[in-house]
Structures are given as structure tokens and as C-alpha cells.
Amino acid sequence: MAGALVGGAVLSASLQVIFDRLASREIMDFIRGKKLEDGLLKKLKLTLMSSNAALEYAENEPITNKSVKLLIDELKDAVYCVEDLLDEIAAEALRNRMESQGQTSMVTKVSRFFSSRNPFEEGMESKLGEILEKLEDLLNQDGIRSLKEYCRGGKKFQRSRETSSVDESGVFYGRDGEKEAIMKLLHPENLTENQIDVIPIVGMAGVGKTTFARFIYNDVRVAEWFDLKAWVCVSDQFDVSRVTKSILDAITSGRDDSQNLDQLQLRLKEKLLGKKFLFVLDDVWNENYEVWDDLRRPFTSGAQNSKIFVTTRSERVASIMKTVQTCPLGILSDGDCGKILAKHAFVDGIPSMHRDLEVIVEAIAKRCKGLPLAAKALGGLLRWNDADEWNEILDSDLWDKLEKEGTTIPPSLRLSYYYLPSNLKRCFACCSIFPKDYEFKKEELILVWMAEGLLHISQKDSNAEGNKYFKDLAFRSFFQQSTRDKSCFVMHDLISDLAKSISGEFVCRLEGSGGSFEIAKNTRHLSNVQEQYDVLRKFKTLPEAKSLRTFLTLESSSFRPCVTSQLLDLLTKCRCLRVLSLAKYRNVNELPEEIGNLKYLRYLNLSQTLIKCLPNSLSTLYYLQTLILFECLELVKLPKDMCRLINLQHLDIRKTELARMPEGMDKLKDLRILTDFVLDDQNGSSINELGKLKHLRGSLAILGLENVAHARDAKDANLKDKKDLKELELLWSSDHDNIDKRREKEVLEQLEPHTNLERLVIRRYRGTRFPEWIGHSSFSKVVSVELSDCEYCLFLPPLGQLSSLESLSISGFTKVATVGDDNDGFYGHCDAWSKPFGSLKTLSFSKMPDWKEWKLCSRDDAFSSLQELIIRDCPKLTNSLPKHLPSLTKLEIDSCGNLGGLLPKAPSICEIQLRLCDALQLVPLPCGLRELYISNRIINDSIMEQMTERCTRLEKLTMCCCSNLRSLPEGSLPNTLKELTIMDGVLDCFKIPLYTSLESLEILDGRMRKLEVDWCIISGPSPPASVIICHQFDVT
Q: For 680, what's the count of Cα atoms within 13 Å in the CB-facing half-sphere?
């Protein structure tokens, strides 16, 4: 629809959102009602299109003329105002529609809103007229007109960078590991199955991909290893004919004037015949596989193990072209950046020849943020200056000035932004709200994008679209995965600078007590890095930002911050807010009724606050899409009219104290994420209301299942059709008295989910058997199952036939006596092609007081992938464990006093923990063991010596309550031992042999006080011959 409105024109990122708004249902209804004069609306479209050229130029070129920059900011502000006006129209239309529900003449009343003159409609025309007047005035200003003329003349912002293989100096700094790996790959003795190896070199702009490829290309060894070499700068226009011609010209040292692709490729194929070649395709942007396939056709005539390097910023480009592992390039160290800076700053390139500047070089190198491109640019800037001038530059406000003018951002980064589609430009600019080095989660950012209207409103699944946008930006190296937390992402400092330069003064970041608290009047998006006490002074200029759209709190540390009580009053006056987060403020325990005035609000995050209940006025926020109440530990109820939030898509109520769901949850038909659904025996939503929520995905926990009166209600929940649900938790309460075992089995039977399920949790189920769907082989995607406190169950379900199951936890089955017999079919019915528990990696049994026998599977290949086995609190278990577990790395047995027999044969095991299981036969322990924890009353000196005689790799030994042990066997413990802990024993400390490898010795005994000695030489009346140095020695 938006495309039809603008005749297919390419829109700037700023205008794309507006034309999407114009295509929305409410706005189109308003237009069809002819409540805006046709001429006025047409004039709006033409004026916006007229401003498009100037806005597009401003998005892609840094504007240094202050007066022009001011005009552009005013133009952007006017465009924001148009967005606000369209939102106001849509919100009013939606309000009228919602308030008309329940009336017989609903359609008539809504149409009356669009067909009769009313003050609201007249006000809209007046506001629109004012905005048009402002836009026209700005477009007639000389500065804006010059930008329009510049674009009309075809002088578009474009890539001008051309690269070559010529190395200006032959000097290269850093990346020793990458160089070694690439040279090994190129070595003639490294033969691969591929005829041609395509090796992508991937990294963000300015990280040195071209320089790295050039260094490899010019290595003297490479010239000996390859018959032919060619370097081509591909750039954004991946023209097959041009690239083919460039390769041909390079390897023939001539020039082919032919323009016919067929002739060019035939000639190239002839020249490559039987030759081993190395090509570098530098700066590739093409993501079309067919184009790449067309280019590589002549290459097949070359010799085996020819190589092609591809440098690109895009992981997607790499995935299309690569035949071997990608070579990712990260940032350089400050030291290497300093070397590059010195090379370009000093005539001789040697900082040690300039002692007075060495320290300054180190300080400025840190400003490069690991980018060699920035180091080179700064080196050129500082060249020929003396020490005083260097210091003046380092200590001056030049850095801030350059940042404001955009000149510290490498042109290559601006090019990255320029080539983004308009939808991604706005999404990327939105990220300017994050401070540098802030780690954010993909899911949270997508929800903010959705709230800001940056995901197409016509899309049925905005989350899928958001995921695509995020992946596209990550592929282009705008986002990098955090090294600290793999679930988070971060932007490089220069990428963050780029985002901020694009957003300008429309984004304000309050970054703690050391930063500025000035909030400009044209601020639209504000983030607040939380302090322990966020005082009023921090927000005193907030009322100036009358058109604020975003208020986002960002966590800065582990403390739970407080905020001034007046902040909420200030925020409820920001009537244009779309995004509001007050997460983690520990003194936020209620919301004012005025929250209902924020009629454009789409995102509300109150997680980890002490909010007790939400005002019913929140139910009038008809545009609300996301409500996050995670870990609101005091929250006991939701608004009673919550069913009116018809646009709600994401409701996170994990770890709350909700007693029930409000009635009418089935009316929230757009819900995608519903983390919990709480049932009770009083008023509230029934489980059958889940049936109408057809779009649920992700994770769902249903609590209070004892309150389901009829199995047919559970069937009406229709979980079986919810194909996007990946995790399901089915929970009964622990304190209900009326137990109907048959009904509970029938209810569970009807709660069968779709076979796409990946994780299943069932707790406190009171039936005696599980229904057939649990453990059925059709659930081939299930990777995790947790069954706990099902105290009336007599048998376990046939979980062994779940082909993808990796983690299984069984706990609290108080009546199960046997596992693995014919009644429970625990191993399932696996055919010759599948193994019982063939994918299982972690298995845990606990709190099973009547479990006596574990009948082993008749097939030897059961548990073939098991890595961790835990058995706790199973006092009657008597028979032996599985005899052979080839993949087991950890074994833990606790409080299983009757468990006898030998430990499993486990050649891969490296950790054993044995507590209160004295009947086990422990001699000898596996030779590969690295960690041993043992609590055993019958172990004596002789048994201990036999146990450990083969443990040649033991690094950590902990002994507890070994009351019969008097000494450690000298010479039987290996010299690999690093940590030794003795607890609650009567061991004679003078008979502890000390080892040269020992780093920590800890003795815990109730009769001693604590003694800590660091870095001590242990001595005594007769120390061992190999006197030891102990890093830490604790006696308690």
C-alpha cells in the first residue's frame, strides 16, 4: 500500500515509516471518510516527497555546515510531527472503536466518527495545516533547496574506494594467529577435496580486511605456490562481466576490450586450464547466489586446490560463497594500533626515536578502539607535529568536536550505513539509544523496534520480521556477539558513534553522574543508565521534551536502584510516549491512574519492581503491544479489563504472585508470547480460553491445573495446534486436597502439545500413569524433559524413544519401585536404526525413596551419548548401575546407602562425586579421573591406596567424613594434584604428603579455628624431601 501511495519511489528511512502509517487501517478509514480535505492530504504527500531528497542526502552525508544541519534537524522534527499526528488519528479511531464495543450500533457509531464533523477532526485539519506550513517554509530555505538540487542533478552519495594489491610498505602488525592459519591453508601440502577453496575474510568496516588480504597476497611464498594471481576490487556493483574482465586483464598483463560475457569467460577458462591460481575478490557486497555462480563457471578449468579470497563485511555473503571455514577478523590490540599510528605519524615510523611522544602514542592508540583504519587516519592527522602540539590535541576538545561533526567516523562505516535498505536504517539508528559497550538482547531490541513502528504493520508476525532485520544488521557487522554473555550483543564504539551521529539531538543518553543531564526540547528518545539513586535533578529538564517517545532504563550494575517519586508524574505528562521502561527500580510499587493518558504507549516494562497491582486505566492503552512484568514478586493481580488490550502481543508474567488470569483473555487474539497462564477455582479465565489464542509461540507455563474441572476444557485449550510453542510447563499446586487421579490423567491427556515441542516440564501431577503422548516417538524434537513430584505415579513413561532427548530429570516419584521393567517401558520401542536414549547427555534421578531396582536395557547401545549421571536420595536402590557408559564424564551419587556393585566402565570420565553410598565397590577408580569428592565412612588407608593407584591425572581431591582414614598414601597420589580438601575427619595432619603441584590445601575441622597462610613454605620437624611451596593453606 505504501508503495502505491508514493509511486514506487525510493524513500528515505525517515519517510518510510510515515508512508507505512498512511497505509494503516485506521488512517485509510479516516481518509475514506473524507474528513480531511482531498487537497490537503494530496499536498501532504507531495510535500513529504519533496523533502525526501534532502532527508536522504542528510542520512548518507555528514553535513558540516551548521546552518544547513540546523535546517535538516528542523525538517526531521517536522516529519516526526507528521508521525505523531497520524498516530493521534489512529489512536482516536481505535478508541472510538473500542468504546463502541458491546453496542448494537457499533459499526454505525464508528462510521459516524468518520462521517460527521467533530472537534477532533477539525483539530486534525488545523494541526496538519500548521505542519504543512512549516514543511513548506523549510523546503524553501536556501540550504535545503541546495541539497534538493544536488540530488536532482544525480550527484548521489556513492562509493569511491578502489583497492589494489600494491603494498605500500610490506609492514604488517598483529594477527599472527590468522596469518599462520591462512598460510597453512595455502601451503601446497595442504590438499583438500575442493577443486577451489573459497575463503571469506569477514569483519566490520575499518578492521583491516583488505590490508590482511593484501599482506597474504604479496607474501613471497604465495608467489611460488601459485601459477597465476589476480586482485579485483568488486565493491557494491557485482558486475560479472567487469569482474571477469578484470581477472583476465590481471593474469594476461593485457587489456581485453570485449564486452561479451561469453567470449570473456571462454578466454578466461582457456587461460586457467590446468593452472593453480589465487584470486582476491575485495569488498564484496553481493548476496545473490546466482550472480556468484555465473562468475565462477570459468574457474573450474583451473588446477586442484586453487584459492579465492573474498573480503566482506557480511556473514551472508560469506555463507553464499565459502567452501571452507570463514576467517573472522576482530579488532587489534592497543599495542598494534599504536604501531600503525606511529608508522603514519612519524617519518621514520619508529616511536622509540621520539621518547617524548611514546606515552602520548599509547594514549591516542586507545582512541582507535582496535580499528587499524582509525589508527592510520589519526596518525596522518598528527604527522609533523611536535610534542606540545600532540599534547594539545590529546587534551583538547577536538575529539568531541570531531564526533559532533561526524569526522571521527571512518567513511567506510558511513558507506555501510548508506547501503542499508531504508527499513534497516531506522532500526539501526534506533540503537543509538544504547551507550557505548552496552550489552543488549536481541529479543528486547526487537520489541522496542516493534513499539517504535519500525516493523511493517501489515506483517502478521512482526517477530519474524524483526529477527530478519536483526540478522541482516548482524551479518553486516553492525552488531557483534558479546564475549561475556553469548546471549547478548554489543556495538563497536565506532558503530555506536555512527548511530549517534545519524540520530543527532533527537536521542539523549543520561549516562550517570559523570555525564550531562541536559535533555533538549527536540529529544524524542531517551535512555537512562541507572544509578543507585536517580534523583530529581537528573530529570529536571524532562518536561522540555514534550514530544518524547522513548524512556528506557538501562542497568549499569548489580545494585537495585531507587528513583525519585516525581519521575512517574513527569512521565505521565509525556503524552507521546511509545516506549516506557522502569525496570529494576526497587521503590516503584504502584502506577498512577494517569498512566492511561499515554494512549500511544506500545511497550511497558516494569520487571523486577515491587509493583503490587496495576491500575485499571492501563486497560485503555489500546495500542499496548508489550507488557513485561518479569519477577514482579509482589504482583498479585492484573487489571480486570485487560481483555481490552487488543493489540497486546507479548505478556511476560514469569515469577509473579498472580492468583488468576483476568476474564476474557481469549479476546487478546494477537498474543504471541504468554509466559504463564494461572488458573484458580474462582472467577477468572478458564483454560479453554487458550484455544482462541492461536498465535502463541515460545514458552508457556500453565499453573493451577488442579482447578480444571472437566477434561473437555483442557481439550478446548487446543495445545495440539499451537505449532510454534517450543516449551511447555504443566503445573499442579502442592496444597490442594481434593485429588481426583482419574480426572487429572484425563486432563493431562487432553493437554497434548504439537510435536514441534522442544522442552516439557510436568510438576505435581497426581495421576498413577502418564498418558500415551508423553514419550511418544512422534515428539522427535524434544530435547529436555523434567518430571517432578508426581508422587502417585507408579511407572515412568517410555522416554527412551525420544530421538532428540538430551536432558532428563526425574524427581520426587515416591511410589516408583522399578525403572525399566515391562510395565513402564522406560526404554521404549526403538528399531534397529535408533538407540534407546541415543542422544541423552544428562540424566538425573532424585528423591525416590521406594526405588529399588534399575533394570538395565537388553541393548548394549543404550545411553551411548550420556555424559552426566546423577542419582540422589534413593536409599533403597540396590542393584548395579549401567555397566558401560562410553561417553560419561561426570558421575554423582548421593545418599544411596544400599547401592552396590561396581561403578560403570567409563573411559571418558573425569569427575566423580560419591556421598553416603558406602556399599559401592570403589576399587580401582578410572585412570583419567581429574576430580574426586568422596564421603565414605568405611574407607581406610588401604582402600584409599587401592582406589587411587591408577589416578595418574587427579587434580582435585575432596574427602569428607572419612572417619576410618588415618593418612594419605604417600606416593600413590599423582604429582598433578592441585587442590586437596579434608573435612570433618580425624586425619593426622602430620601424615599428609605434600606435592610440588599443590596449589591449595584446606582442612576443615570443628575443633580448630581458621588459619589462612598465603604463599608459604611449609616446613616442620621432618618435612618431605621435596619441600613444597603452597599457594594457599587453610586450616579451619
A: 12
Q: Which of these three, 658, 687, 722, is where a domain ends?
A: 658
DSSP string, 530-551: --SEE-GGGGTTGGG-TT--EE
Which residue type occupies 987? L
> What pLDDT, on the 0 to 100 scale, is given for residue 6?
37
Domain count for the chain: 7
Same domain, 855 and 964: no
Same structural domain for residues 121 and 36?
yes
C-alpha span between 978 and 462 (Å, rounded): 54
- How far apart are the C-alpha atoms of 783 and 807, rounded to whole Å? 6
* Distance from chain centroid for Cα 90: 33
Concatenate the DSSP letters of all residues of 813-857 into one string: -TT--EESSTTT-TT----TTS-TTTT--EEEEE--TT--EEPPP
517, 547 contact by CB (below 8 A): no
Give the Cα-Cα-Cα angle 996, 1000, 1001 (nearest 5 degrees): 95
Numbers of helices and strands, H then E, in the chain: 29, 36
pLDDT at residue 116 in the model: 53
Residue 702 lies in a domain: yes
Tell whether 638 and 678 lie within a shared domain: no
Please report the beta strands in 262-314, taking only residues with DSSP state E, as ranges in sequence order.
277-284, 306-312
The highest-confidence range among 452-456, 896-900, 943-947, 1023-1027, by mean pLDDT, is 896-900
Query: Among 751, 767, 783, where does a domain finish?
Result: 767
The yes-or-no verdict on residue 1026 having pLDDT over 50 is: no
Edge-to-edge strands of the sheet including 480-481? 440-441, 488-490, 480-481
Q: HEC states along 382-446?
A: HCCCCHHHHHHHHHCCHHHHHHHHCCCCCHHHHHHHHCCCHHHHHHHHHHHHCCCCCCEEHHHHH
What CATH number is associated with residue 312?
A: 3.40.50.300
pLDDT at 339: 85
Classify the C-alpha dihedral 968-970-971-976 as positive or negative.
positive
Q: Let me know: does 268 contact 249? Beta carbons within 8 Å.
A: no
**CA-to-CA distance for 730 and 752, rounded, in angstroms?**
11
What's the mean pLDDT in 690-700? 95
Q: Is residue 342 part of a domain?
A: no
Same-domain check for residues 586 and 520? yes
Task: Determine the Cα–Cα distance for residues 773 and 755; give it in Å rounded to an integer.
Answer: 10
Amino acid 938: pLDDT: 80
Parent domain of 626: 505-658
Q: Are residues 715 and 742 in the same domain?
A: yes
Residues 547 and 651 placed together within one structural domain of the fold: yes
Q: Is residue 109 part of a domain?
A: no
Flag whether the pTM goes above 0.85. no
- One domain for residues 760 and 830: no
340 in a structural domain? no
Is the predicted pLDDT of residue 306 greater than 80, yes or no?
yes
- Eight-class DSSP state of 165: S
User: Cα–Cα distance between 638 and 636 in angstroms, integer?
Assistant: 7
At 479, which CATH number?
A: 1.10.10.10
In angstroms, the CA 429 to CA 13 distance is 10
CB atoms within 10 A of CB 602: 25
Rounded Cα distance between 673 and 688, Å, is 17
What is the helix (H) or strand (E) element at residue 498, kind and residue range?
A: helix 493-503
Do 539 and 488 fall into the same domain?
Answer: no
Integer Rg of the chain from CA: 35
For strands 673-674 and 676-678, give the pairing.
unpaired
pLDDT in tens, 909-936: 999 999 998 888 877 888 889 999 998 8
User: Which range among 260-274, 362-376, 597-611, 850-864 has the greatest average pLDDT?
Assistant: 597-611
Mean per-residue pLDDT for 351-373? Answer: 73
* CATH classification of the domain holding 623: 3.80.10.10
Higher per-residue pLDDT: 940 or 31:
940
